[in-house]
Design goal:
This protein is mainly alpha-helical and 123 residues long. It has helices at 22-31, 37-52, 75-84, 86-92, 94-97, 109-113, and strands at residues 2-5, 11-14, 53-56. It has a 3-stranded antiparallel beta sheet. The longest helix has 16 residues, at 37-52.
Length: 123
């Protein structure tokens, strides 16, 4: 369990990556069903956040109770939370993390950046 201070000053308590269960992994994988690559990437990120956020200081229900709460976050806070998920991906998919293989190879930075017009990367 770790506590993270976000750019807005809000705090988030994240679960220990080793405490995640197979049911968490299954929910995350199911979130990637259907839609474009960008939509699947966002759904997977949000499902992962719902699985790892234990508590937060926002006046919103935590994502495991109401996943739509994620949509109310300031973009800089969301971006930092998504970056924090990298270590969790390795814990959830250890068999892929050691191979150097992309866990979701169909998702590219370009796909995800199309939804962010402020991205410094080419859209």
């Amino acid at each position: 369990m770790s506590k993270l201070t976000l750019p807005s000053g809000a705090t988030v308590t994240l679960k220990d990556p080793n405490s995640l269960k197979v049911k968490d992994r299954n929910r995350i994988m199911k979130a990637g069903d259907g839609g474009s690559a960008a939509e699947r990437g966002i759904a997977i990120s949000n499902a992962l956040l719902a699985a790892i956020i234990e508590d937060w200081s926002y006046d919103l229900l935590i994502p495991s109770v109401k996943e739509e709460s994620i949509e109310e976050l300031p973009i800089p806070d969301y971006s930092l939370l998504v970056k924090e998920t990298e270590s969790y991906i390795k814990a959830i998919f250890p068999e892929l993390a050691d191979t150097g293989e992309a866990i979701f190879p169909e998702l590219t930075d370009t796909d995800l950046n199309r939804l962010n017009p402020d991205s410094p990367l080419e859209n």
